[in-house]
Amino acid sequence: MPEITQEMRDQVKEIVYNFFAEECEVDRESINSETKVIEDLEGDSLMFLELLEIFKKKYNLTVGVESIGKYIMKHPAETVGKIVDLILLIIEHGEKISEIG
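The chain above was modelled as a monomer; its predicted structure follows.
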């Protein structure tokens, strides 16, 4: 599992922000870490699955949706910032994300 660097954080943030800007047809500059995906961007949970596929390919991840779902049930990711953090946790911990408190 890779160590998360600042460069990686910046790349993940950029991909996530650009993804939501494009998918939700909003100005990229209007998105920040507190932007709520469903309420502010009128996004949906399926967008997260699309986003996850991007990162699975980019970082060659094999984590299952079930493991991520177990984590999300305890730690909902409703804002863009929390989604960035979640993606970084998935990259760092892979399948073991479901074991994180």
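The helical segments are 6-23, 45-59, 65-74, 80-93.
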